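Reopening this one. Same input as before:
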Amino acid sequence: MADITPDQAGMALEAAERARRRVAAEVGLPRGYWWAMAAGWLLLGVLGSLASPWVAAAATLAFGMGHATLASRLLGGRRRTDQVQVSRTVAGRRLPLVVVGMLLGLVAATVAAALVLDADGAEHAGIAAGALVAVVIGFGGPEMLRVLRRWVRA
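Same output, byte for byte:
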């Protein structure tokens, strides 16, 4: 250990930091999370269009509570695989905020799509808007999260 030069120590620390950043970049939410959210999104669109307002409101609250419970376990990103667990500091403390922001954006996109479709005369605008956003979530959720994390450096 005494034979290590300051330059070698610095290079070792830089290599360790690069490795930490690579692991942190891999932290995310499992693919099943995104498809479960897409299915819930579609179900809420159907209930919003076909069920009574009370049922739709109760389902929305239940979806929100279920998502909050599941997300609180997954959003730290620490349990992506059984082989690797990283600390919250490596996973990133801003990741939950990024996901919440992303969800708010998706809610706004759903409402905007429903309003546009309704103005165009669509019979079940809520279902169509929910289906549109569900497809985006299911197929593009991980990629959207990756881009948003890069933008906010989370």
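So the earlier flakiness isn't reproducible anymore. For the record, The chain is about 80% helix and 0% strand.
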